[in-house]
Amino acid sequence: MTAVRQHRQKAGEQGGSPSTVAYVLYAAARVLAAHPEANAAFRGGIRPRVGHFGTVAAKLTLDKRMGGRRVVLSAVLPDVHLRSLRDVARSTARFRDGDPESMPEFAGVRALQRLPGPLGRLVHRAGTRPLRRRLATTGTFTVTSLGHRPLTWFHSVGGTTVTLGLGAVADRPVVRGDAVITAPVLPLSLTFDHRVIDGAEAADVLGDIKHALENFGRLGPEGGDAADGEALGSGPAGPGRQGP
């Protein structure tokens, strides 16, 4: 995460410093746009189907309190592959700092909480099962972060084909050339739905996200808003390259 840290420092000098989650959302959305097979969803049942989407929507998980209880909520950022880093950072911060008791985006969750348990689960399933509703209800990929916890690796299943799990960025020993130095390292995991993609495609997606983050701001203004001074690298089978 050396390149991301350098970019954050420059952004901080200009009056804003995006979170690690914002960088991952920004990079992953553009990688998913370049991997349409992974930007998909599965519906089970008697006639199972895989639905593909022409846009990328990110689901962000949130550790919140609602009705006096600790809950994990999710917020969906639509068309995230078209947004600038600044916009992604603003949306992420808004959901992170906002009150779910009053935010309009969580009105549906508040309504579900008022229903009896079995009925609430039935209504939730009916609302999220149709593929046409997935963009708005679950997004096309999930980012969940435990960077605020003293954890390294964890693997989460977020109900989407691809789920990214983020640990805490910390300075760790790395080898560069013949020397061992310290550098900021992000533990990044990917879980995937094998009913939609295979391990080779999942590995390509994770590798391209890794490459994009490690080269952020270095390889030209691909996939970003020129006003942000952003850049996204193009790894093998990654953004800017056509698949086989």
Distance between the termini: 29 Å
Main sheet summary:
5 strands, mixed
Helix content: 25-40%
Helix-strand string: HHEEEEHHHHEEEEEH
Which runs of at least 5 residues are low in confidence (pLDDT < 50)?
221-244
- Taking all Cα atoms into account, the compactness measure Rg is 18 Å
- Oligomeric organization of the protein chains: single chain
Average pLDDT: 84
Strand order of the largest sheet: 4-3-5-6-9
Question: How many E-type strands?
Answer: 9
Shape: globular
Compact description:
With 244 residues, the chain is of the alpha/beta class. 32% of the residues lie in helices and 23% in strands. The chain has helices at residues 2-13, 20-34, 85-97, 107-113, 117-128, 134-137, 199-214, and strands at residues 40-43, 49-52, 58-66, 69-77, 141-145, 162-166, 170-176, 179-185, 188-192.
